[in-house]
Every structure is written in structure tokens, then in C-alpha cells.
């Protein structure tokens, strides 16, 4: 039984945290921002790629590229890769937890990091919320691996 606990602590928890980070990154393809209509403007739902790297509609730049939103989706990927590559090193797990934590916080603040000429009130959609929650969950698991080891 002790061997199973040690195996789960050394392999299961870091793999869980890395999978959370990878899934948080892939949320970039889902809807991240919803613009609710003001006046006669129609509502729009935009994916994380459109919001992060810019979106043009009829030669009007609706969203400009936002470094904060790019970091919100790529920091969990960097954290997951750090966990996989640096398996067994405490410093790598702490750095990975920091990347996942910052990525999760930025993903949950994505509506405030928008830049562009949109009209309406932006709010978070499922992709940004799921990315933020998964990144924060992965960060908690990555920090847990540092303190759970013998």
C-alpha cells in the first residue's frame, strides 16, 4: 500500500497537473469572450485565438493582439511542459506551478485585457473560464507535489 501511495505522489499528481495545463491551453480554440449588445449592435462570441491574436471584420480591426491574453493561454502550456521535462526536480515543479497560476489568473481576467474597437460589454465565455479553472487546479496539484514528497 505504501508503494502505491509513493507511486501516485511521484507520478500521478504531476501527470494530473500537466494534463490540466495541456487542456487549459487547448481551451484557446473555444469561445473565450462574449460581447453583449449595446444599442443596435449584434452580440458576438469570439474564440481565444481571435481575441489573443487579433480579429478583423470587414477591414475593421475588432480586436488587436493582446499579450496578456496570449500569455493566459500559453503559460499553462509552458507549465505543463516544465512539469513533464523537469520531472523529479522541485524547482521545476515550483516554476511550473507559478506558470500555471499566472496563466489561470490571466485567463480569468481576459475580459479586462481586451484591446480593440468593439462596442458592447465584454464578458467571459466557457473557454476562458475553463482554462482559468483548469490552470489553477493544475497549479494547486503542482505545488502539492513539492510538499507531498518524502
Uncertain segments: none
Portion of residues in beta strands equals: 5-15%
Supply the number of structural domains. 1
- Integer average pLDDT: 86
Gyration radius, rounded: 18 Å
Structural class: alpha+beta
Q: Which strands sit side by side, in order, in the main sheet?
A: 2-1-5
Largest sheet: 3 strands, antiparallel
Shape: elongated
CATH architecture: Up-down Bundle
Order of SSEs: HEEHEEHHEH
Task: Please provide the count of β strands.
Answer: 5
Question: Do you know the CATH topology?
Answer: Butyryl-CoA Dehydrogenase, subunit A, domain 3
* Percent range of helical residues: 55-70%
Distance between the termini: 15 Å
Number of helices: 5
Q: Given this structure, which CATH class is correct?
A: Mainly Alpha
Write the layout of secondary structure elements.
Layout lengths: L1 H25 L4 E6 L7 E4 H6 L1 E3 L2 E4 L3 H19 L4 H19 L12 E4 L1 H23 L2
Antiparallel strand pairs: 1-2, 1-5, 3-4
Helix pairs in contact: 1-3, 1-5, 3-4, 3-5, 4-5
In words, what does this structure look like?
By secondary structure, the chain is α+β, with helices and mostly antiparallel strands. The chain has a single domain (2-148), classed as Butyryl-CoA Dehydrogenase, subunit A, domain 3. It has 5 helices and 5 strands; from the N terminus they run H-E-E-H-E-E-H-H-E-H. It has helices at 2-26, 48-53, 67-85, 90-108, 126-148; strands spanning 31-36, 44-47, 55-57, 60-63, 121-124. The strands form 2 sheets. Strands 2-1-5 form a 3-stranded antiparallel beta sheet. Strands 3-4 form a two-stranded antiparallel sheet. Helix 1 (2-26) packs antiparallel against helix 3, helix 1 packs antiparallel against helix 5 and helix 3 (67-85) runs parallel beside helix 5. The mean pLDDT is 86.
Amino acid at each position: 500500500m505504501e508503494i502505491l501511495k509513493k507511486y501516485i505522489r511521484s507520478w500521478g499528481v504531476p501527470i494530473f497537473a500537466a494534463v490540466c495545463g495541456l487542456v487549459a491551453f487547448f481551451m484557446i480554440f473555444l469561445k473565450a469572450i462574449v460581447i453583449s449588445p449595446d444599442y443596435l449592435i449584434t452580440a458576438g462570441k469570439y474564440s481565444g485565438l481571435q481575441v489573443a491574436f487579433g480579429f478583423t471584420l470587414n477591414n475593421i480591426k475588432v480586436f488587436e493582439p493582446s499579450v496578456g491574453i496570449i500569455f493566459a493561454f500559453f503559460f499553462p502550456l509552458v507549465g505543463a511542459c516544465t512539469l513533464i521535462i523537469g520531472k523529479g526536480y522541485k524547482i521545476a515543479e515550483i516554476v511550473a506551478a507559478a506558470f500555471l497560476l499566472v496563466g489561470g489568473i490571466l485567463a480569468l481576467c481576459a475580459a479586462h485585457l481586451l484591446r480593440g474597437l468593439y462596442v458592447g460589454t465584454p464578458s467571459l465565455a466557457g473557454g476562458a473560464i475553463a482554462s482559468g479553472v483548469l490552470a489553477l487546479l493544475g497549479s494547486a496539484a503542482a505545488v502539492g507535489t513539492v510538499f507531498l514528497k518524502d
